[in-house]
Design goal:
outer membrane lipoprotein receptor (LolB), chain A; 3 domains; Cytochrome Bc1 Complex, Chain A, domain 1; 21 helices; 729 residues; 7-stranded mixed sheet; 13-stranded antiparallel sheet; alpha+beta; 34% helix; single chain
C-alpha cells in the first residue's frame, strides 16, 4: 500500500456553487432578486475556522502520543504509526511489508490465535486492523468507550507478541499472488505503475513491483525478524481520539505501554530513486482497449519545500477544478479528454512527480499528446497563470479548506502525518495564512521552476490500430513489456538422446491409443456438449458447456451458468467475449490461454508429433489407481505438458501443466484425470474428466454428446461487430 499525500489536483471543487445555495436557503433570495449581475452579489465573510490541536505527550520509552478529545459519540479510536515499511524490505523479498501488515493482525498472538481475536472483537463490535505502506506501517483500533480498556489489552498483545501463523501467511500470499495475476487488468493502474518506474527507476521502492518469485521467497522467520527489528515504542506514534478524559486515557496508555522497553536506534538507509527521468516516448501496447491513456512528467518536489504553498495554488489553477486550464482547454474546448488532470506532486519523504494525464479516443491519441504539451509549455513560460486564475484558485482552496478537516479523525490523521515526518505542530493551523500570502508572481515563478518541457518522460497505454499519428512522431519509441514473470516451476529432468528416443516410442503408443495415426490426422473439428461442475470460493456451480474446436486455432464456447450465458470466441489472434449486456475483446492473456488449451488436448498434441517445435521425453513410470503408466514430458513452443499413458494400451489417463488459476488468478499446477473412454468415429475419447488446481478439486465434466468433424461455419468464430462490418460492405 502506498502512502502518499493527497494531491489537490485530483479534486474537483465547486465551493462557490455551494455557497450560493446556502445563501439562498437562509434568506438571500430577496437580495438576489434586486441584483441583475450575480457577480455583484455581496456575501458575508466566512467565519474563521480554527483547527483543533491535539495534545502531544512523550512517554519515557520514546513513544509519542497525540490526544484529541471528541465527546460527540461514545467511541474511542487509536492509530499507531510505526517507522518502517516496504521502503526498507530487500528487493529480493518485495512484498514482505505487505504480508507483514496483513498477517500481523490475522496471525494471532502467543495467547490468542487469529480466530479467537476475531470472536473477541466481533462480540464487542470492535475493530483492529494492521497494514503497511512504503514509508510507514500502521495498526488501528476502533471500540466503544466502555470496551476500550479490554480491547486495548488485546491490541497491545497484537502489537508486541504476534506469532504470524503459517496458515494465515499462506492466505495472505495467495491474495498477493491474485493481485499480481490481475495487475494488468486496469489500464490506469498500468499507466501509473509504469510511469513511476520511468521517473523513480524500476528498482526504487517507490516504483518496484512485487513478483511471484519475491512473494514466494518470504518465510515466517522473515516476518518475525521484521517485527523484532522495527517494532519498538521509540518507533511508534500513537494518535487517540474520541470520548475519553485526558488524564484517564494517558494513565491507561502508560500502564499498557510504559513498561515496554525502547528498542535500539535503527538507522534506516534512505530508499533510492532516480534524480531525473529519461525524456522520450514510451509505449505499452494493450490491444483490448478502445482508448489511449497518456501521461507525461518528471520528478516533483517534497512537502517541506518552501514553495509548497505556491505550488498548491499552481496545481489548482492548472488541473484541480472545472475551471482549471487542463479541464477548460483540453476537455471542454477541444473535446479531447474523458479525464484530464495535472500538477506538481509532493510527498513527505521524497519528491512526488509532476505529471499530466488524460484518457482519449485512440483516434485522437496524438492530438491529446499535442494538447498536453501545449498546456505544459504555456503554464511554464509562454502563458503563465493570470491574476484572475490565481485569485480563483486561492479562493477555491481557502473556501474548501474546512471540508478537508471537518472531523476530528481527519485532523488527527493529518497531525499524525506531520508528527511522523517532523513538521511543526502548527503547520495545519497556518495553512490558510500561507495560501493567502501566495502572489501571482509566486505562481508564475514556481511553474517555471518545477515544470520542464524538455525533461518529460511520456507514456501511452493503448492499442496501435487507429492512432491518428504514429508515436515515433515524438521521437524514438521505447516499448515496455508488462508481461508478468511466471513463478519458477520445478526443473524438468535434462533430456538425453536415450530419453528422447524412448519418449518418441511411447508417444507412438499414445497415438495408437487415441485411435491411430489415420483417425488422429483426419480430425479437423470437434463439437462437445458437456455438463460441468465448477468449484469456486462461493460454492459449486453447475454449468452446461457447448464447445466447438476447429483445429488448429479456433474455439467457440457457450457456457450456460446460473447467472446467464457466457460466449467466448477465439480465432487465432482475435478473441471476443459476451456476458449478458457486456461484450468486447478477450484480454490477450485469456485468449492465449484458450489457445494453449487446444494443444494440451492429447488429440491436438498428437497431430503436432512431427512438428519441428515438438519434443517428448520419457521421464519414468508411475501407477494411477493401480494402472501402470509411462510418464512423458511433451514440449511445444516453450509450453510443457506432462502425460501419464497406460502401459497396456497407451490411453492418456492424466495430464499436468502450469497455468493461471480461475478468473485469471495466480499460476499453479493443473492436473486433469480422464476416464470412461469410448470410440467415436474411430477416435478414443474420454467422456469423463476431473481437474484439480494446486491439489484442490476445481472442476469435473461429463460429455453428453460429441461430434467428430462436424460442418463448421466460419461465422461461429467471428465476433458480432466483425460480422456486422462484413455484412455492410
Amino acid at each position: 500500500m502506498r502512502e502518499r499525500k493527497t494531491m489537490r489536483i485530483t479534486a474537483i471543487r465547486f465551493p462557490a456553487v455551494l455557497a450560493f445555495i446556502i445563501c439562498a436557503a437562509v434568506g438571500l433570495s430577496s437580495l438576489h432578486a434586486q441584483v441583475k449581475d450575480w457577480k455583484k452579489i455581496k456575501f458575508p465573510s466566512m467565519r474563521t475556522f480554527t483547527v483543533p490541536q491535539p495534545e502531544r505527550v512523550a512517554l519515557d520509552n520514546g513513544m509519542v502520543v497525540l490526544l484529541l478529545e471528541d465527546h460527540e459519540l461514545p467511541l474511542v479510536e487509536l492509530t499507531a504509526r510505526i517507522r518502517t515499511g516496504s521502503g526498507v524490505e530487500p528487493a529480493a523479498k518485495a512484498g514482505l511489508a505487505s504480508i507483514f501488515g496483513q498477517v500481523w493482525r490475522t496471525g494471532g498472538t502467543k495467547t490468542m490465535n487469529g480466530d479467537a481475536i476475531d470472536d473477541f472483537l466481533e462480540s464487542r463490535a470492535a475493530v483492529v486492523e494492521t497494514g503497511a505502506g512504503i514509508s510507514a506501517t500502521f495498526a488501528t483500533v476502533s471500540s466503544l468507550k466502555e470496551d476500550f480498556p479490554e480491547v486495548l489489552k488485546v491490541f497491545s498483545d497484537i502489537l508486541r507478541n504476534p506469532v504470524f501463523d503459517q496458515e494465515k501467511i499462506d492466505i495472505a500470499v495467495n491474495l498477493e499472488k491474485a493481485g499480481i495475476a490481475r495487475r494488468n487488468d486496469d489500464p490506469t493502474e498500468i499507466m501509473q505503475r509504469e510511469f513511476d518506474k520511468l521517473v523513480y527507476g524500476p528498482d526504487s521502492p517507490y516504483a518496484r513491483t512485487t513478483e511471484y518469485a519475491t512473494i514466494g521467497s518470504i518465510t515466517r522467520d522473515d516476518l518475525l525478524a521484521f517485527h523484532k527489528k522495527y517494532v519498538a515504542p521509540n518507533r511508534i506514534i500513537l494518535g487517540v481520539r474520541g470520548d475519553f478524559v485526558r488524564a484517564e486515557m494517558l494513565d491507561q496508555l502508560k500502564k499498557t505501554f510504559g513498561a515496554w522497553a525502547a528498542g535500539p536506534a535503527v538507522k534506516d538507509p534512505p530508499p533510492v530513486y532516480r534524480t531525473s527521468a529519461t525524456p522520450g516516448m514510451n509505449f505499452v501496447r494493450k490491444d483490448d482497449m478502445t482508448q489511449s491513456n497518456i501521461i507525461m512528467g518528471h520528478l516533483g518536489i517534497e512537502e517541506n519545500n518552501p514553495d509548497i504553498f505556491a505550488v498548491e495554488v499552481l496545481n489548482e489553477a492548472f488541473g484541480g477544478s472545472f475551471s482549471a486550464r487542463l479541464f477548460n482547454n483540453v476537455r471542454t474546448k477541444k473535446g479531447l479528454a474523458y479525464r484530464v488532470r495535472g500538477g506538481v506532486g509532493s510527498d513527505f519523504d521524497h519528491p512526488g512527480t509532476f505529471n499530466t494525464f488524460m484518457t482519449t479516443k485512440v483516434e485522437t491519441t496524438a492530438a491529446g499528446i499535442d494538447a498536453l504539451l501545449e498546456e505544459i509549455s504555456a503554464i511554464a513560460g509562454t502563458k503563465p497563470p493570470t491574476a484572475e486564475e490565481v485569485a480563483r484558485a486561492k479562493e477555491s482552496i481557502l473556501e474548501s479548506f474546512v471540508f478537508n478537516y471537518d472531523s476530528t479523525a481527519e485532523i488527527l490523521g493529518q497531525q499524525l502525518t506531520y508528527e511522523y515526518y517532523g513538521f511543526p505542530l502548527d503547520y495545519l493551523a497556518k495553512y490558510r495564512e500561507n495560501i493567502e500570502k501566495v502572489t501571482t508572481e509566486d505562481v508564475a515563478r514556481v511553474a517555471k521552476k518545477y515544470i520542464h518541457r524538455d525533461q518529460l518522460a511520456m507514456l501511452v497505454v493503448g492499442p496501435v490500430k487507429g492512432q491518428d499519428k504514429p508515436l515515433d512522431t515524438y521521437g524514438k519509441v521505447a516499448a515496455i513489456d508488462i508481461t508478468i514473470p511466471e513463478p519458477a516451476a520445478a526443473a524438468a529432468p535434462a533430456a538425453t538422446p536415450a530419453s528422447l528416443k524412448q519418449g518418441r516410442e511411447v508417444f507412438a503408443k499414445v497415438v495408437d491409443g487415441l485411435g491411430g495415426a489415420g483417425a488422429v490426422d483426419s480430425l479437423t473439428a470437434l463439437k462437445t456438449l458437456s455438463d460441468m461442475t465448477l468449484n469456486t470460493p462461493g460454492g459449486q456451480f453447475a454449468l452446461k458447456v457447448d464447445a466447438t474446436f476447429a483445429l488448429p486455432d479456433r474455439v467457440r464456447q457457450e457456457v450456460a451458468t446460473p447467472m446467464g450465458q457466457i460466449v467466448m470466441l477465439v480465432n487465432g489472434a482475435e478473441g471476443y467475449m459476451k456476458q449478458g449486456p457486456n461484450e468486447g475483446p478477450l484480454p490477450p492473456a485469456q485468449r492465449e490461454e484458450i489457445l494453449r488449451s487446444i494443444w494440451r488436448n492429447p488429440l491436438a498434441l498428437a497431430q503436432r508429433r512431427d512438428d519441428s517445435a515438438f519434443q517428448v521425453q520419457y521421464v519414468g513410470e508411475e501407477s494411477i489407481e493401480g494402472t501402470p503408466c509411462d510418464v512423458l514430458l511433451a514440449t511445444l513452443n516453450g509450453d510443457t505438458l506432462k502425460l501419464w499413458a497406460s502401459k497396456a494400451d497407451g490411453k492418456v489417463l492424466r495430464t499436468q501443466y502450469r497455468a493461471p488459476g480461475a478468473m485469471g488468478g495466480p499460476p499453479g499446477d493443473h492436473v486433469m484425470s480422464f476416464s470412461d473412454f469410448r470410440k467415436v468415429s474411430g477416435l478414443t475419447i474420454p467422456f469423463k474428466s476431473e481437474g484439480t488446481f494446486d491439489g484442490k478439486p476445481q472442476r469435473s465434466s461429463v460429455i453428453q454428446e460429441v461430434v467428430v468433424n462436424p460442418p463448421v461455419d466460419a461465422a461461429l468464430f467471428t465476433a458480432p461487430q466483425a460480422q456486422a462490418a462484413g455484412g455492410s460492405q
